[in-house]
Amino acid sequence: MNTIIEEFMAQVNENIEALAVFDNDRKLSRRELLQLADTIALRIPEGCKRVGIIMNHSVEMIASIFAALRVGAAYIPVEPFFPKERIRYMMEEAEVRVLITNSGYADRFSGFTNIIVDKGFAIEETAAVGAEYDEKDLAYILYTSGTTGKPKGVSVTNANVCHYVRAFRNEFHPAFGDIMLQHSVCSFDIFVEEVFTTLLSGAALAIPSDEERADAKKLIDFIRRNNVTMLSGFPYLLQEINDLPEIPKSLRLLISGGDVIRASYVTNLLGKVEVYNTYGPSETTVCASYCRCTDENILEDGTFPVGKPVLGVEIKVMDDEGREVTYGEVGELCIFGGGVSNGYIGNRNEENKAFVNTADGRMYRSGDLGYYLPDGNIAFLHRKDTQIMIRGKRVEVSEVENVLTRSELIRQAYVAPKVDDNNLSYMVAYVVPEKEDVRLEDITDYMKDYLTDFMIPEYFVELKSLPLNANGKVDKAALPNVLRKVAA
Question: What pTM value is reported for the model?
Fold first, then answer.
């Protein structure tokens, strides 16, 4: 049993009436979630292998994802607020023909079969779906920032997801009575962790409204009101909880992922609730390592290690020649094991070279640099290339630059990654406009058609020309430096 649906069916059979998922409007038992998924699945055309999900977060969204999996298809999740052309590119590259969406978004895209699923979508009691399931089948395609100026889709199998569910269970022991907060956007790894480690382990999923998700105080009220026990999010969310006069009593586990977590973010949490730092690229299915944060394992730079490999994973720190380095030496984090995905879809032969078949199994070269600590834990340093994390989300700086240079408004552009005094990344775009009267608003409006908000540089510097060195490349040292003021 190594597929998502088979794992979920085992939970249904164990306790059919147990609570599975709820939002502010609706609660579904495991039986009802399966029935709603089947009701939606019957509307998916026979033979469909890729289903796009463009929906507001709700019980119905979770059922729609399970509907795609129920017919043996992979789902491709996209938030409705993503740029229209970016969504279209993803769906077309992933060969999606069917979109499950809300009625409010039904007229956005032509050329797709729309299945409309709104809040309150009725269960048809007679609905039943049967399909053959194979662990090698894709479960989802998750799009991340790409170096070519186009996002790249990571193809993750059922076996990959089930591997991660086992690893999560081994460390955190989710069970009946636990309630996981669904806080992340659907296009990020944390969403996968929230949904599948919960529903395949007997716990329940709690979905706040968009308003609650956007307001820390309202989110905490939701957590208290619904006795949420587990939360997985970006370091900044943990920082918000850290600043509370009192931690919600129901919380037993806080998981930080997606960006660097600093000890200063969790000063009031350590010793009161389990706090974990995690690490893992989308290419290796959610997390490859865990580290339980304590007062004793804070590093000199004020961060925590990323820990040790999860169950079923091996991480080696390797040099450019593929040799494992000794502790203290800096090298690339190379990941082996059950989470290593099928790689990128489409014509991405160059980028797929990061996936390597070795004598020790399939390996993913992460492009992240780190080193072994004397106790066997791993410390993360930074990206090997121009990839950075902005507000917990991965950004290829070159993608941002490529989008800028494609604009008729811009003659030349260079985007520089920067790091402030708190070791948080930001971007500065140096631009040479095509005309004198180009406004910043025009540039950012253009970028919003192709990039999500966090991928738009925080600062823009207008230049008459880009300084070049003797090799004809941008002379980075000659560019004006733009510093970001850091709050005390």
Answer: 0.83
In tens digits, the chain (488 residues) has pLDDT values of 799 999 999 999 999 999 999 999 999 999 999 999 999 999 999 999 999 999 999 999 999 999 999 999 999 999 998 888 889 999 999 999 999 999 999 888 878 999 999 999 999 977 778 788 999 999 999 998 766 668 899 999 999 999 999 999 999 999 999 999 999 999 889 999 999 999 999 999 999 999 998 888 899 999 999 999 999 998 878 888 988 888 999 999 999 988 778 788 898 999 899 999 999 999 999 999 999 999 999 888 778 999 999 999 999 999 988 888 998 899 999 999 999 999 999 888 888 989 998 888 899 999 888 999 999 999 988 777 767 888 778 887 877 887 887 888 988 888 999 888 888 889 999 998 988 889 999 999 999 999 998 999 999 999 988 887 644 467 888 999 888 876 54
Enumerate residues 6+ apart whose C-beta is below 8 A from 235.
256, 258, 259, 260, 261, 262, 265, 392
CA angle 208, 9, 40 (to 5 degrees): 60
Supply the CATH classification number for the domain 4-378.
Answer: 3.40.50.12780
What span, in angstroms and rounded, lies between the C-alpha atoms of 77 and 52?
6
Alpha helices in 76-188 (DSSP H): 84-93, 158-172
Name the burial class of residue 477, with classes exposed (0-12), middle (13-18) and buried (19+) by CB atoms within 10 angstroms of its CB.
exposed
CATH topology of domain 387-478: GMP Synthetase; Chain A, domain 3 (3.30.300)
Do 90 and 154 touch, CB atoms closer than 8 A? Answer: no
Asked if residue 395 lies in contact with residue 383, where contact means CB atoms within 8 angstroms, the answer is no
Domain spans in the chain, listed from the N-terminal domain onward: 4-378, 387-478
Query: At 445, is the secondary structure helix, strand, or coil?
Result: helix
Burial (CB < 10 A; 0-12, 13-18, 19+), residue 353, is: exposed
Query: For residues 293 and 281, is the Cβ–Cβ distance under 8 A?
Result: no
Find residue 231's DSSP bridge partners: 254
In whole angstroms, what is the distance from residue 187 CA to residue 50 CA? Answer: 15
Sort 483 into a burial class: Cβ within 10 Å, 0-12 / 13-18 / 19+.
exposed
